[in-house]
Every structure is written in structure tokens, then in C-alpha cells.
Structure prediction request, 200 residues.
Amino acid sequence: QDTLPWNRSCCARCGLPTPQPVAACGRCLQKPPPLERVHAAFRYGFPVDRLEQRFKFHHDLAAGRELSDAMRPMLVDALAKGERPQAIIAVPLHPKRLRRRGYNQSLELARPLSKAFAIPLLHDILHRIRDIAPQSGLGAQARLRNPRGAFAVGGGALPPHIALVDDVMTTGATLYECARTLKRAGVQRVDAWVAARVPR
Prediction:
């Protein structure tokens, strides 16, 4: 536990590791992101990167449960500070990719968090309507462009405060596009709960 790459010192707005915790890093001050808060349990590095790959690409759902459990203490602190969302949404996969993989890794993280904190998990509200290229195979600029227009909202009313759950945040492009889509649909505040944040 002591040697894991916990992300305890970071920017509250984007989750990027910083020498000391800050409310907003220079980049977020210049261009505030559509997420109000990012809670990332780990910096993406050994051994979390190996655990994440087993979970995401090798059907190791037990590894996903370990990651979800590791996210809980950080979120207990956030909820105690009044950052409790009314609902949780897992970042959706396109149906084609869901069929290939067999499960949505974000949903596997979100289910136990929803149960642990008694926060509703909303299904079939946020949809991925474009089957975009995998972010993992793209450079930084392409990652930022890739998810644009990839999501849509439909299927029910939305509460004012939502937490998006995802496994890894790299540039933030996917989560930012999800947040923008939700805000266009009337959501006032969107946070992100992620297992790991990739350092710049």
C-alpha cells in the first residue's frame, strides 16, 4: 500500500500530479475544463499500469474490483466535504466495442462504487454514438480531437450533479467531451472519478 503510486498531490480540476495539491493548475486557470473536480486514486505507473491492462484487455475483472476498492477512500473524503453527486454514470463504450470486449471496464468500476455510497448508477442515459479509434493508439493532439461529437444524451431526466467514472484519464478528452454533452443536456456540475491519471 505504501509503495503504490497514489495521486495525493494533484490539481483538483484536472487531476494532474503536482508538487503540492492545488485548486487549479496553470492550465486549468487559463482554460477551465468542463469538469469541476477530478478524483484520481493513482498516478498511472507501475504496478497500477499492469493491473489496469489486465483488467481492460485480458478480462481480469478481479483486477478491476481491486482498482474500484482503491478508489473508495479518496471518494469518502470527497463526499465528506460536500462533493456528493446525485448520480453516477460510467463512460460508455460503443456497442461494437462492447460486443468485442464483452464488458465495459468503466461500468465494472462504477457498480461497486454506486453500491458502496448508495448513489444511483444511471444506465442508458449517456450513449457513445460514434465508434471512434481507440485513444490508446493516438498522439496527444489526435486524442483531443478524436472524441468530439462521439456522445449523446437520451433516455431520462438528469440530476444537477453527476460523477463520471472511467478507468484511466490521459489527456482528459473523452471525459471532457462526456461532461460537455451532459452540460448541454442541463447538468450543472460534472465530476470525474477515475482509477488512474497519466502524468503529463
The longest helix spans residues 61-80. Strands lie at 37-43, 87-90, 126-128, 151-153, 161-169, 189-197. Helices lie at 26-30, 48-57, 61-80, 95-101, 105-117, 140-145, 173-184. The longest strand covers residues 161-169.
